[in-house]
Every structure is written in C-alpha cells, then in structure tokens.
Design goal:
9 helices; 69% helix; 161 residues; mainly alpha
C-alpha cells in the first residue's frame, strides 16, 4: 500500500511534499544540466526554488519547462526526470497553502515522526505481523496528528452499523 492511498482515508486538510527533499530533486537536475558548483546552477536552484515556494506550482512548472526546452541528450533526460518527479506530486507542492495554515514544509517534523512511530511499533519485546503493524502505525500517526484523533473517532462512531 502506498502512503498516498493510506492517507486518503484520513480527514486531512492537505498533504505536502517536504521542501528539503523537493529541493534535492531540483538540485540534482541543476547539477546534471548546469554543472556542479557553477554560478548558473546556483542561480537556477535559487530562482526555481523561490518560484515554487513563493509563487506556486504553475509558475514553477513553467520555469522548469522553459529551462528544459533547449536541453538535449542526457541533460534533457535529467530535466525529464525532474518533471517526472514533480508532475505527479503537483497537489503536494503547495507551500502557499502551508504558509496560510502555519504548517511546516521542512523534513524535520516528518523525519522525527517516522522515528517515533517506528520505535513504538518495533519497541523491545513487541511482535507484530505486517497486517497488524500497519494498523498500529496508522493509529499512532493519527494520534500524533493535531486534533485528528478525536475527529476521526467521532466520525467513525457516527458511521458505525
């Protein structure tokens, strides 16, 4: 089961791609096409990430398409890899929505939660089969999510047989 399909059952306000990992993909494409540590690569990275963060997905994607247009061969393939990464995640590249709601776009909180949840599922003396650990992890993530635990159970009790 992929993470996105697991999240669809939760009453979430939004799902966001963390900016750190997003910027790694943009940076890798910049290095592959403009060279490592070059002024052109640095300018591409700064301008492209600024556009994504402050102007939104559509202007960001147009910038990427414009940058890709003159590229050929392996450089075009690197640009296509970036497009292949961001296009399916369009709705997750939503820094403006995150800023409006006060949500963190960094990877720190997510990485921390992964560690906490894994530790609780795999703690000393615990034994879980794959089906049960998935449910446990989902419940723990729900519990750790601000205000979602009570909303989820209230909704679940209202819709039970």
């Amino acid at each position: 089961m992929c993470l996105r399909s697991a999240l669809e059952v939760l009453p979430l306000q939004g799902v966001t791609l963390d900016f750190y990992h997003f910027s790694e993909h943009v940076g890798d494409a910049g290095v592959a096409t403009l060279g490592k540590d070059t002024p052109a690569c640095q300018a591409f990275l700064e301008q492209t990430l600024h556009t994504a963060r402050h102007e939104g997905y559509a202007p960001f994607f147009q910038r990427v398409l414009d940058w890709r247009s003159p590229l050929r061969g392996g450089k075009r393939q690197a640009a296509d890899a970036l497009i292949g990464y961001v296009a399916p995640r369009q709705e997750m590249i939503n820094c403006d929505q995150c800023q409006e709601n006060g949500w963190d776009v960094g990877s720190g909180p997510m990485e921390s939660m992964c560690g906490v949840t894994t530790d609780r599922a795999k703690g000393r003396g615990r034994r879980w089969d794959l089906d049960n650990v998935e449910g446990l992890v989902a419940l723990e993530a729900l519990y750790q999510s601000t205000h979602l635990w009570n909303r989820y159970w209230l909704d679940a009790f209202q819709h039970r047989n």
